[in-house]
Automatic annotation (TrEMBL):
The species this protein was found in: Novosphingobium resinovorum
GO annotation (BP), single: proteolysis
Hydrolase recorded as keyword: yes
Keywords: Hydrolase, Metal-binding, Protease, Signal, Zinc
Residues of the Peptidase M20 dimerisation domain: 215-359
Family label: Belongs to the peptidase M20A family.
InterPro entries named among the record's database cross-references: Bact_exopeptidase_dim_dom, Pept_M20A, Peptidase_M20, Peptidase_M20_dimer
Domain of life: Bacteria
Protein name: Peptidase M20 dimerisation domain-containing protein
GO MF terms held by the record: metal ion binding; peptidase activity
PANTHER family listed in its UniProt record: N-FATTY-ACYL-AMINO ACID SYNTHASE/HYDROLASE PM20D1 (PTHR45962), N-FATTY-ACYL-AMINO ACID SYNTHASE_HYDROLASE PM20D1 (PTHR45962:SF1)
Record's signal peptide: 1-23
Length: 466
């Protein structure tokens, strides 16, 4: 069954009536969110030939120009086959550092033949917006931008400048992400609105909301063993494949030292209170009390949802070797993918892996390149925590709020690496069953629109108006 847009927006509002604290409506902003989201999804902003990220930037620029920004306030900067957008709403106090709103306009590839609906033809159906970028992250970029426009429409004047900084290749090389962060390294803090921060029950009730204050460092190490080779009829003890396999077995069985930081400590403490599984909740509580508790570690490391939060993780992901069926292998190679807990360097972890492998013949090389950077956790700032608490309550009602550390990577790492606090803090809520980012039939619930505008207008008023 398909509904008209007014009916869908009305349906979304009614679904939230019992679980959110609705402030006054923002009908113009709400309509603009859906319009910009649909038009952005229709633009195939994928790396390679025909990349339309620049057109997405132009779409957002035109919306800002219509709302009162001047051409000199907005930059669209081409870089390779993509582009990035920086738009500034100047604050009344030039002595205050700016507040940055970060998102990305590019999306991962999507093949129409694999989808039920064309990924680049936005479809509104049964209370959802379908299309590539619906949840990651064109909808949220449009929601944040429309909320900023709404503040200007309502006569708000920020004391500190608000800078909208949307990158164009977050899903691939992050070249624009690095450039933007370098340009804005004097910012007060960054609100990264990439993805959904809240979780809904399958019945649509808000369960909890999470802000991201840290992320692990993505790293790939190449491990190679080389031998002279020879005829397979005359085997020798130093077989490259066997040696590499022995090293991989030791690495696969190794567990890095469990760790806590300010963000993860608060995550475990908060998650304990809402975790429905008593065994898992008890393990979380015990881990906070003693990160080396063996029983707690056994439970947490056995759970896919928690194993990456305990420590650095490294796992073999690819392997190749040999050159002929009847020859001793001259080389064997593996890739080790690591997600490094904040506070450790790439050389440090590689040295630890070399020690674990205990294979002198194995040569380790960092092959990550420039697509990742070591970044510390952002501080748990009282002003930020208070502001998001107020905004979430205004939008969604009294919902538990938990800080988190991501095992993935986002534009935030480039800011954090330069000493700028960055926080993943989007407005939207999503059911676990609706999580299709990077996958088929990506979608976002339209019930996020009205509370999303409330969230951003509340949050930005607090963070930029003081």
């Amino acid at each position: 069954m398909r509904f008209s847009i007014p009916v869908l927006l009305s349906l979304g509002a009614s679904l939230l009536a019992s679980s959110t604290a609705q402030a006054k409506g923002h009908p113009e902003a709400e309509a603009q969110v859906l319009d910009l989201s649909k038009r952005a999804i229709a633009l195939r902003s994928v790396q390679g030939p025909g990349n339309k990220t620049g057109e997405v930037a132009a779409l957002f620029r035109d919306a800002l120009l219509k709302a009162g920004w001047t051409a000199s306030d907005i930059e669209i900067v081409p870089l390779g086959d993509t582009a990035y957008l920086i738009a500034t709403w100047k604050g009344s106090d030039p002595g205050l550092k700016p507040l940055v709103i970060s998102a990305h306009m590019d999306v991962v590839e999507a093949k129409p033949e694999d989808w039920e609906r064309d990924p680049f033809t936005p479809v509104v159906e049964n209370g959802y917006l379908f299309g590539r970028g619906a949840s990651d992250t064109k909808f949220e970029a449009a929601l944040a931008l429309s909320s900023v426009i709404e503040l200007r429409r309502e006569g708000f004047r920020p004391k500190r400048s608000i800078v909208i900084a949307y990158s164009g290749d977050e899903e691939t090389t992050m070249d624009t992400s690095k450039v933007i962060a370098e340009r804005l390294k004097g910012a007060e803090l960054v609100l990264n609105v990439d993805g959904s921060s809240g979780t809904l029950s399958e019945a649509g009730k808000p369960l909890y909301w999470s802000w991201q204050g840290a992320e692990k460092t993505y790293v790939d190490y190449k491990v190679e063993v080389t031998n002279p080779g020879g005829h397979s009829s005359a085997p020798r003890p130093d077989n490259a494949i066997v040696q590499l396999a022995q090293a991989m077995e030791r690495i696969g069985a190794y567990r890095f030292k469990p760790e806590l930081n300010d963000v993860t400590r608060q995550y475990w403490t908060g998650a304990t209170k809402i975790e429905p599984d008593p065994k898992l909740a008890a393990a979380m509580k015990a881990f906070v009390a003693n990160p080396n508790d063996p029983a707690a570690l056994q439970v947490l490391r056995a759970n896919p949802a928690t194993v990456g939060r305990v420590s650095t993780t490294c796992v073999p992901t690819m392997i190749s070797g040999g050159h002929a069926q009847n020859a001793l292998p001259q080389s064997a190679t593996a890739n080790i993918n690591c997600r490094i807990f904040p506070g450790h360097t790439r050389p440090e972890i590689m040295a630890e892996l070399e020690k674990v492998a205990a294979m002198p013949a194995a040569k380790f090389t960092d092959v990550t390149g420039d697509d990742s950077v070591e970044a510390p956790a952002s501080p748990v700032r009282p002003d930020f925590v208070a502001a998001v608490g107020k905004a979430v309550k205004a939008a969604w009602g009294p919902v538990p709020i938990i800080p988190s550390q991501s095992s993935g990577a986002s534009d935030s790492m480039w800011y954090r690496a330069l000493g700028v606090p960055s926080y993943g803090a989007s407005a939207s809520m999503i059911r676990d069953s609706d999580e299709f980012a990077h996958g088929l039939n990506e979608r976002i619930g339209l019930l996020n629109i009205a509370p999303g505008v409330v969230y951003y207008t509340t949050l930005l008023t607090d963070l930029a108006g003081k």
